[in-house]
């Protein structure tokens, strides 16, 4: 089994000049954490399936093995992402070549499934984004997409127009899901924008003293339905982040733990069921290193984070801009604080110093900045 990949990894051509997929990301392809029944992500996926099976028997078709390597058409054009949208940039998305990306959301499969005649489905999969480094962000994470199409029979007689009907059904469905998973938890709806839905909403959940965005959703843009020959229909769609929900649900303090093979982590999920809280097995001390440099125009925080991740791997806990100023000559200086910490063991000073020296060296040679 190739883990949803159409080709084995050896066959995937990676020498395209536009390829920006680093080795550490490439090796994560095909791992499919969401298909492991004794992993928190698999447990959560199954619990969401249970909710849909109980409330909509035999309605939603489930997909969790679609290839994460998709065309830019699937990932962007098919869901109406504008040509100049930031998510298309090489700074935000991993490109295999100019027309092929690692999907940055499970919405990449919406249009094709609609075109093939499906009207109710759930798509779960690994998604990839270049991003910052902290306890809730990791360049590979998992989403579940849900789509439900309605026909006139559904909303006629409801007393409201089709869009209102779909929006109300959507919120009811997702609030029910949140209650099914969490029982009581503080939540709020936020109005937002997505290219593929209108109106659009986000659900946030209160966690670790902050509001955490856990899903995006909305009423599907008519244009998407039109392109799949469904002019007289209305639909809703949602995309939820499995890691974030699982962190809240199981009390998992750091997103890197999902990738841990340490049996002090994995054994806690052996039962394969909801209803347990993760017991942290240790708290090893973090080590902070600061680094200041003059940036150039091409500098981006995502590039810095990827470089740090490439050297330190999962030992990088957080990369945080702590100072930022521009001098009279117009030169801008950034000071970043890097937190190194292992979830599994103590790190030695030597080990951290060596990582930090490599980071300093590569920041200069690859990011075109001048260390101060
Ligand atoms: N694709 C969106 C994201 O990744 C989530 C979403 C899915 C929003 C479906 C609306 C509808 O953030």
TrEMBL record:
Family annotation (SMART domains): FDX-ACB (SM00896)
Function: Is responsible for the charging of tRNA(Phe) with phenylalanine in mitochondrial translation.
Alphabetical UniProt keywords: Aminoacyl-tRNA synthetase, ATP-binding, Ligase, Mitochondrion, Nucleotide-binding, Protein biosynthesis, Transit peptide
Annotated protein name in UniProt: phenylalanine--tRNA ligase
DNA-binding recorded as keyword: no
Catalysed conversion reaction: tRNA(Phe) + L-phenylalanine + ATP = L-phenylalanyl-tRNA(Phe) + AMP + diphosphate + H(+)
Family listed: Belongs to the class-II aminoacyl-tRNA synthetase family.
One Pfam family it belongs to: FDX-ACB
